[in-house]
Amino acid sequence: xxxxxxxxxxxxxxxxxxxxxxxxxxxxxxxxxxxxxxxxxxxxxxxxxxxxxxxxxxxxxxxxxxxxxxxxxxxxxxxxxxxxxxxxxxxxxxxxxxxxxxxxxxxxxxxxxxxxxxxxxxxxxxxxxxxxxxxxxxxxxx
Length: 142
Known about the structure:
Blueprint: H1 14-26, E1 29-30, E2 36-37, H2 40-50, H3 60-71, H4 87-100, H5 106-113, H6 117-127
Antiparallel strand pairs: 1-2
Helix pairs in contact: 1-2, 2-3, 4-6
């Protein structure tokens, strides 16, 4: 089944996101050791079976990103027609991370904030007089 909106998380309605997340919760399994697991692939299949009349169905990647967004306190699709985060907020977050620890790498800022590495690099190049921290050479390299 082909999905024309593949990778575009914000292209679903709030109702569709809610349905996806409820179905995702239904896939919860607890192992004998008490480990909880959720199955995004199964959730995507169940969604397609339950809502065959909807224009498109999510892939398992969409459901995993939806779960990640909710866990991070974001609500997908809440920005309406805007796409992406407002740059001023991104700039402030990146600069605050760099101010707190000037030795913080681009990848570390990316992992802490969820802002793409290329955006972090662009912001640091544009806003900070010094360039981002270069990769350190190992002791064995010439």
